[in-house]
């Protein structure tokens, strides 16, 4: 099968570099060129201390064709550096559309992972699970997101329990059905915001076989804490420490996060 996302990240430090490119923050007449050079240098600098690189698709899509081309080059560069890749696209649709999304990400980039939205139900996620199993990849299902407004729906009462715990029950069943080679982990993980530490603790117990992608580290105020299967993601605070591209500051911030996550 070649590259295997779960086996790779399970053996690496638990820090994820989030890449949310903002060309306006890059100086000079060719901001995209400067952005690309900076991203390449940063990935190379931090590679040994990362679990993965997470590319937030919205920021690339906003740049049109040039953004898509930049995304492809950076994903390819991450793989050359030996870094696992997470496509943060939050896909979720029915039938042939879900299959097309799966081909565009998991099948196109073997050994990578994709974030997905469970709102349409299990049949809409099945193509992603199948593609992950066939390509050595993984799927991270949104369960409890890091934004304050997540409570609007995710915390609604669902038979005496918050809805996010009901979603977790289904994710646990999917995790059992799609095991990975790296025991005890599954190819079906969960997105659980680090900004909700109580929910993080509940969900870690409810989803023993799922790796967690834990956003919110840094700019959103989440405090890093060590734990089995927790992949902590930092975007603005690590890619743009201090609100600007700064390799030296990013190295210092990554080291601080690694110390905190090592306990």
From TrEMBL:
Keyword Iron: no
UniProtKB keywords: Decarboxylase, Lyase, Pyrimidine biosynthesis
Active site: 90 (proton donor)
Catalysed reactions listed for this entry: orotidine 5'-phosphate + H(+) = UMP + CO2
Domain of life: Bacteria
InterPro entries per the UniProt record, alphabetical: Aldolase_TIM (IPR013785), OMPdecase_AS (IPR018089), OMPdecase_type-2 (IPR011995), OMPdeCOase_dom (IPR001754), RibuloseP-bd_barrel (IPR011060)
EC number(s) reported in the record: 4.1.1.23
Alphabetical GO biological process terms: 'de novo' pyrimidine nucleobase biosynthetic process; 'de novo' UMP biosynthetic process
Signal peptide: none
Residue span(s) of domain Orotidine 5'-phosphate decarboxylase: 14-251
Protein name: Orotidine 5'-phosphate decarboxylase
Alphabetical list of Pfam families matching this protein: OMPdecase
Residue stretches in coiled coil: none
Molecular-function GO terms, alphabetical: orotidine-5'-phosphate decarboxylase activity
Pathway listed: Pyrimidine metabolism; UMP biosynthesis via de novo pathway; UMP from orotate: step 2/2
Family note: Belongs to the OMP decarboxylase family. Type 2 subfamily.
